[in-house]
Amino acid sequence: MTFKTPDLCDQFESELGKSVRVVAPMFKRYGGRNEFSGRIATLKLFEDNSLVRTAFAEDGKGKVLVIDGGGSLRCALVGDQLAILAQKNGWEGVVVYGCIRDSGDINGIDIGVRALDTHPQKSIKKNVGDRDIAVTFGGVTFNPGEYLYADEDGVLVSANPLL
């Protein structure tokens, strides 16, 4: 299903009872999909990607993982092996408020990825973080079960499905 975020903004900002929240333009595009959408699943963690592996090991059909990594630029939270795992388990995409690594390899994987930047250092593994809670960054609160739409023009969040 194709869409354009500008069209979704135009269509749903004018309808009473439906609105979209636009994430501040802070992310770089990675992954093999320029556009992706799905129900939001969330993680809140800091420089520890243990829960990312756990989430990507589960069925992700129709879902987008939103990772609040605190905006850290000191290590990567997603690399090529996690992206392969996510793609294998049907995840539509991931938004990382932090860094990724192996970006060249990730660009060849059929998954949508948005991240602040790249960093070659891996994260720690202490299995610390929170799952399925509201997270806020980029001027938007991401609630589990809501809907995310991302393309080359930006990232939108809606309480209701738009497509």
Q: What top-tier CATH class fits best? A: Alpha Beta
Strand content: 25-35%
- Low-pLDDT ranges: none
- Structural class per helix/strand content? alpha/beta
Largest sheet: 10 strands, mixed
CATH superfamily: Ribonuclease E inhibitor RraA/RraA-like
What's the N-to-C terminus distance?
A: 8 Å
Please tell me the overall pLDDT: 95
Number of helices: 4
CATH fold-level name: Glucose Oxidase, domain 1
Characterize the overall form: globular
- Rg over CA atoms: 15 Å
Number of domains: 1
Order of helices and strands: HEEEHEEHEHEEEEEE
Q: Could you characterize what this model shows?
A:
This protein is of the alpha/beta class. The protein has one domain: Glucose Oxidase, domain 1. 18% of the residues lie in helices and 35% in strands. Strands 1, 2, 3, 4, 5, 6, 7, 8, 11 and 12 form a 10-stranded mixed beta sheet that branches. Helix 2 (50-56) runs parallel beside helix 3. The termini are close together.
Features of this protein?
Glucose Oxidase, domain 1; about 160 residues; alpha/beta; two-stranded antiparallel sheet; about 20% helix; about 35% strand; 10-stranded mixed sheet
